[in-house]
Amino acid sequence: MHQKLREHIEKIILLTDDEFSLVLSHFNSRSFKKKEFLIDKGDTNIDCYYIVSGLLKLIYEDENGNEHIVSFAMEDWWESDFIAFFTQTNATMSLQCIEDTDVFCISIENYQKLCAVLQKMEHFLLKKSNSGHIASQRRILSFLTSSAKDRYDLLLKQHPSLFQRVNKTMLASYLGVSRETLSRLSS
Amino acid sequence: MHQKLREHIEKIILLTDDEFSLVLSHFNSRSFKKKEFLIDKGDTNIDCYYIVSGLLKLIYEDENGNEHIVSFAMEDWWESDFIAFFTQTNATMSLQCIEDTDVFCISIENYQKLCAVLQKMEHFLLKKSNSGHIASQRRILSFLTSSAKDRYDLLLKQHPSLFQRVNKTMLASYLGVSRETLSRLSS
DNA sequence: TAACATTTGTGATGTTTGTCACACGTTAGA
DNA sequence: TCTAACGTGTGACAAACATCACAAATGTTA
């Protein structure tokens, strides 16, 4: 597991063994079973997660109890309720396992400490944050410019593996349409 | 103009006079008239802009020639086609003045240099990037969970000043509904 | 100020999507 | 292996929204 994290980071910055040990000391390694919650809405002291293996969904429950999938997160991705993580407030979203999942997690305190003690990591995290920002912009664009059918086709093209790992109800929730509409789109 | 940028940065990190001069040397100051383009789709070498005064729209034109407003940007905000800026590719979006606008702009080369020569600025930019990420997440949530009417009400609550400065056609484009639907929502 | 372009509201109509109901096959656990 | 929960497709209908057309109000420029 350590090796995967190291390779992931070293795609952007190079680390000595000592530096990587220092990095690692700021993380905890944890495992979760399918349907378990890494974050439950209302939780405080939200961590940020690097996903070694498995699949997660970040969900928002509206006032009618309907679940909306803000994003899926799979191997090699970083995920959190970033609003709660960065602003150090209660989680408004939940992060739940779709499959058994192994992660490294880091608290906001350790995130800040790590940036302070190892400048390279601040650089790494800036790159990651910028990538996250870009991914969000793309998703906004898809809502602005595309019909449900087009969003479906785009997702199928960009993340075909999701269609094997995630049921139709969740895909519909991610695309922002009802289960029934999605069913009619794909037939 | 310099003072505004300095105050903006010093909300997060403190700078000596020399440090601020160093920061400033990485930026250019520019002014644009209403309807002028800071970024035109297809442009290369996209800059990132800090807005001193004025109002901009970031737009995406779809294959049918329809304009979609990805975001508005006003005083004290940072804006760019971040996809093009960070990935150093051609702009797919345009950034256009709604009002006369003064900005500081920075190239990706200077952005990277500045991070390298002044660690504090890397910290500042990480904070800004995280804020941008959060703002995008909120916008995605509004598309997932809210009807056009609810998105309209939310915008009115969060940014009432926009309703004075921007016409209804643009508001509709930002909210992702037709001009006619918006008109019926607000009456 | 006259001529023209832009902005806005509103009716009529069609399309897209949501909601409710139900049937049927699959999966998971006792 | 039996049973209950879950996942999926589909019909009928309602609601939300887009599109087209047009008129009135407002803004802009020669």
Give a concise summary.
Chain A is built from nine helices and eight strands. With 187 residues, the first copy, chain A, is α+β, with helices and mostly antiparallel strands.
Task: Report on this structure.
The structure is a homodimer of 187-residue chains. The first copy, chain A, has a domain of 117 residues: Jelly Rolls (Sandwich). Chain A has nine helices and eight strands. The longest helix of chain A is centred in the C-terminal third of the chain and has 27 residues. The radius of gyration of chain A is 17 Å and the shape is globular. The mean pLDDT of chain A is 94. Chain A binds a DNA duplex (30 and 30 nucleotides) through helix 9.
Helix content of chain A: 40-55%
**CATH fold-type name of one domain in chain A:** Jelly Rolls
> How many β-strands of chain A, per DSSP?
8
Low-confidence spans of chain A: none
Q: Would you list the SSEs of chain A in sequence order as H and E? A: HHEEEEEEHEEHHHHHH
Arrangement of strands in the largest sheet of chain A: 1-8-3-6
The biggest beta sheet of chain A, please?
Answer: 4 strands, antiparallel
**Which two protein chains have the largest interface (Cβ within 8 Å of the partner's Cβ), and how many residues from each?**
A-B, 32 and 32 residues
What percentage of the residues of chain A does DSSP assign to strands (E)?
15-25%
- Would you tell me the overall average pLDDT of chain A? 94
For the termini of chain A, the CA-CA separation is: 41 Å
CATH evolutionary superfamily of one domain in chain A: Jelly Rolls
* Text of the CATH class of one domain in chain A: Mainly Beta
What's the multimeric state? homodimer
- What would you call the structural class of chain A? alpha+beta
What is the number of helical segments of chain A per DSSP (H or I, 4+ residues)? 9
Shape descriptor of chain A reads: globular
Rg value of chain A: 17 Å
Q: Architecture of one domain in chain A, CATH level 2?
A: Sandwich
InterPro entries (chains A, B): cNMP-bd_dom (IPR000595), cNMP-bd_dom_sf (IPR018490), RmlC-like_jellyroll (IPR014710)
Protein name (chains A, B): CRP-like cAMP-binding protein
Pfam family, one (chains A, B): cNMP_binding
Organism (chains A, B): Flavobacterium circumlabens
